[in-house]
Specification:
It is a single chain. The chain has 15 helices and 19 strands. It is α/β, with parallel strands linked by helices. A hairpin with a 2-residue loop joins strand 4 and strand 5. Helix 1 (12-25) packs across helix 2 (58-71). The radius of gyration is 25 Å and the shape is globular.
Length: 445
């Protein structure tokens, strides 16, 4: 446990305040209050990993939930339905901007609080970890007068941070920027921001139709969630507007396929799509305690194939008093695709998926794996982090490693702390079936 409270002497109001302040100071992105049969477990997510924080006695569970609901503007009498709320306050010189969600479970209500941190967005797009080539491509996208720029990735991969950074750069006196969001995560002076409200019919599609009559230069859509929103966004971009939005897809190719699945006409998508920024977040190595280690055969072969570089040493995590586990913060891995005329022609001509993939990744694009390995070589993150985040199918150096084997093969540990001798476990390779002209047989590799 990271924290303990004297619940008999400390009022529940102070307990809640202390949890919120401490989690924010620790750099947590989320706080989880999980109801269990014997107590309520509190966990915080730091650098993408959930860790135990404290235990709330069952006799105080209801009081804690009620307190959180009150300060977040939720209905304290409703316990059977999910609710959303928000907290914006300043406690002990700490500015808190929180999003609160509650859901009913068999053991009671579960509360999750998301801690919004705008420091990266405010620092500018140049501080988001883009490589030089990717940064130049993003700037080129932003200078296009009309089209769609999509930022894609899983939940919690930093999409909103990237979008807000782009908006900050585009926010000028001669530009009319209007956003449609659910919820508005960051208030930006000089930008007109619309909060959707489905209860009164103010959804993304309805807002977008009205925005087009407001003489906008730039339109930001918080998220493309359905076919109607996707179609309106595409049509807005071909009528002379720059449209920014997010989508839950893994890479550039999946993004194009998802929009086509949303029944966006091929010729409209081809003419409107300007660029795609796909990203994932990897834990960042602590610069105070990272150690250099030799690469094993698997790692050196993968780097050679993907980056065409001969690398014999990389950095690994060790752990110190400052970081605890060898990592401090997170860094984004990017795949930036600037749509050129060849790709536009391929989209409109209904090219098969395999040929479209070859075309996309033969263009001037750095894949997520390439960018991740570049950051490994630079000492910003580790092999383990990259392999946990990125699908190796089609990128594996030999085509015989599954993900577990790939991660195990990079699990190099220091065998003797004093001598610094490194020990590399031998990867266990699972036999794979090979089909011949006669029968399928298993060959030991």
């Amino acid at each position: 446990m990271l924290a303990s409270f004297d619940f008999e002497k400390t009022p529940i109001v102070e307990v809640v305040n202390e949890i919120l302040i401490d989690a924010a100071k620790r750099g947590a992105s989320d706080i989880h209050f999980d109801p269990l049969s014997k107590y309520m477990k509190t966990r915080i997510r730091v650098d993408g990993a959930l860790i135990d924080y404290c235990e709330i006695p069952n006799n105080l569970k209801k009081n804690l939930i009620t307190r959180i609901k009150i300060i977040s503007g939720m209905n304290i009498t409703e316990t059977r339905l999910p609710q959303d709320g928000a907290i914006k306050d300043r406690l002990e010189d700490v500015d808190l901007d929180l999003r609160v969600s509650s859901i009913p479970t068999s053991e009671g209500e579960k509360i999750v609080i998301r801690i919004l941190d705008y420091s990266m967005s405010l620092s500018g797009i140049e501080h988001l970890g883009f490589s030089d080539s990717n940064y130049k491509k993003v700037l080129k996208m932003m200078n296009v007068p009309n089209g769609i720029i999509l930022v894609t990735g899983a939940t919690g991969s930093g999409k909103s941070t990237t979008v807000y950074s782009i908006l900050q750069r585009l926010n000028r006196e001669d530009t009319n920027i209007i956003t449609v969001e659910d919820p508005i995560e960051m208030d930006i002076e000089g930008i007109n921001q619309i909060q959707t409200n489905s209860e009164i019919g103010l959804d993304f599609a309805t807002s977008l139709r009205s925005i087009l009559r407001q003489d906008p230069n730039v339109i930001m859509i918080g998220e493309i969630r359905d076919t109607e929103t996707a179609k309106i966004a595409v049509r807005a971009s071909i009528t002379g507007h720059l449209v920014l939005s997010t989508l839950h897809t893994n890479d550039s190719l999946n993004t194009i396929e998802r929009l086509l699945d949303m029944e966006v006409e091929r010729y409209l998508l081809a003419s409107s799509l300007t660029g795609i920024v796909s990203q994932k977040l990897a834990r960042k190595l602590c610069l105070d305690c990272r150690v250099v280690r030799p690469t094993n055969e698997y790692e050196s072969n993968l780097i050679k194939k993907v980056l065409n570089r001969n690398i014999t040493e990389v950095y690994s995590s060790e752990g110190c008093e400052k970081c605890g586990n060898g990592y401090v913060g997170r860094i984004a891995l990017h795949e930036v695709l600037l749509i050129d005329q060849t790709i536009k022609d391929a989209i409109s001509s209904d090219l098969p998926r395999d040929k479209l993939r070859d075309l996309v990744y033969s263009a001037d694009v750095t894949t997520l794996l390439q960018d991740g390995l570049e950051k490994v070589v630079s000492g910003l993150t580790t092999f383990e982090e990259v392999l946990k985040l990125i699908e190796l199918e089609g990128e594996d150096a030999y085509g015989i490693y599954d993900l577990k084997t790939a991660i195990d093969s990079t699990n190099i540990v220091i065998d003797n702390q004093e001598t610094g001798i490194f020990k590399t476990p031998e990867p266990t390779i699972t036999p794979i079936p090979v089909t011949t002209n006669d029968n399928a047989e298993t060959i030991e590799l």
